[in-house]
Amino acid sequence: MKHWLMKSEPDSYSIEDLERDGRTAWTGVRNYQARNLMRDEMSVGDPVLFYHSSSNPPGVVGVARVASEPYGDATALDPRSDYYDEKATEQEPRWYLVDVEFVERFPRTVPLAELKDTEGLEEMVVTQRSRLSVQPVRPEEFEIVRRLGRS
DNA sequence: GCCAACGTTGGC
DNA sequence: GCCAACGTTGGC
User: Fold this and answer.
1) Does A149 map to a domain?
2) Residue A151 belongs to a domain
3) Residue A47's domain is classified under what CATH number?
4) Is the pLDDT of residue A139 over 90?
5) Torsion angle, CA of A113/A106/A32/A117, rounded to 10 degrees?
6) Which of A30, A40, A61, A150 is a Cys-bridge partner for A15, taking CB atoms 3.0 to 4.6 Å apart?
7) pTM
């Protein structure tokens, strides 16, 4: 089982939205590295740190779980969608996603600044200025962050 | 709103 | 296939 961190801007989709919906399709990823991680590396049941970006403060706000096998992102086929991609087709979807389901909302946000200050997270991708919206997380890192969030 | 980091595009 | 120009992300 692999562990992940997925970023979302809370103005577009927040942990509260996920708690309400229970489950959502992670549409709109248009970065190849992030796509490849979802398409090739994720399995149903993988734990996910849910991260709010472009918020104040940015940070991890809860836990989710991969809830489907990867499949083509239909928003790439919709000309009215912000995520439309004219090179995507039904046969060659080009962009992939997984469904994600709600697991828990932390009683507090674990801010990015705190992650950067926490022993054991020095090499965590999100503390290394990475813009990747889907990132692998080491199991030890996942545990450290969850403990912080629950405290 | 600024701007650094960095991914993508396209000319050659 | 290189690399300059350009666009986007996202923290601050």
Assistant:
1) no
2) no
3) 3.10.590.10
4) yes
5) 20
6) A61
7) 0.94
Domain housing A75: 3-144
Residue A96 to residue A81: CA distance in whole angstroms: 15
Q: Which nucleotides of B are covered by protein (CB under 7 A)?
A: 5-8
Of A9, A16, A13, A38, give the one whose Cα is nearest residue A99: A38
The 10s digit of each residue's pLDDT in A5-36 is: 999 999 999 999 999 999 999 999 999 999 99
CA A34-A110-A6 angle, to 5 degrees, is 15
Which nucleotides along chain C are within 7 A of a protein C-beta?
8-12
A84 Cβ within 7 A of any nucleic strand B atom = no
Domain count for chain A, please give it: 1
- State residue A122's pLDDT score: 92
